[in-house]
RagB/SusD family nutrient uptake outer membrane protein (Mariniphaga anaerophila), 227 residues
Amino acid sequence: SYSYLRDGEPIPEEMIKEMLMLKSENDFRTANLITENADTVVWKYSWNKDVYDMDPNYIIYRAAGIHLLLAEVYTYWAFDRNGIILTFTSNAVNIVNNGANYSAAGNRPQLGVRGRVGFGGTTDGIKVGNINYVHDPFTNEVVDYIDLTGNFIGLQELLEEKIIEEKARELAFEGERFYDLMRVAKRRNDPSFLAEKVSAKYPSGQREQIYNLLMEERNWYINYFDE
């Protein structure tokens, strides 16, 4: 989706791997030196195109996005069958991981949003349960855990967050992230869900100001009609 360019040339893949390894070792100072004075360039819309090509491929909806929206639906979908409440969180997990929601056949064409790129297995697929471990994003070390034993609503919300995170990765630079955060924040009636995630990208000196601003839903929109 993107690349680091310095003086118009991509930083070599070996150096990017070294940067990621340094981050996994918490050596952010050295890691940042690798991308110092480099530009982050979005390639998703211009891959294999000349700089003057006039045929950009603007994505409106694509299959992965639709599947992830369906996974959101299954996260909360439930109905009463003869006094028994049936839920479908496992369907949501399967849509993301391996496509087993659609068919049990081993040769099914639907491999899941993560599975189609080899990340939907038992060790690297998304999962939720009673005990959910929190991992460091760089070292993958367990740093905490979330106990949702007997808390099905909490389990649904955690699954929803994992789906939204997957959507952020899958649809990066496609203009959907803010609307996803808005939708979940409104569904939960919790503006902090959006405010916390958006403010986190700002410099530390601005985060509190941005957070407080976004705690007011009216500030999520362009005040086009204000005088």
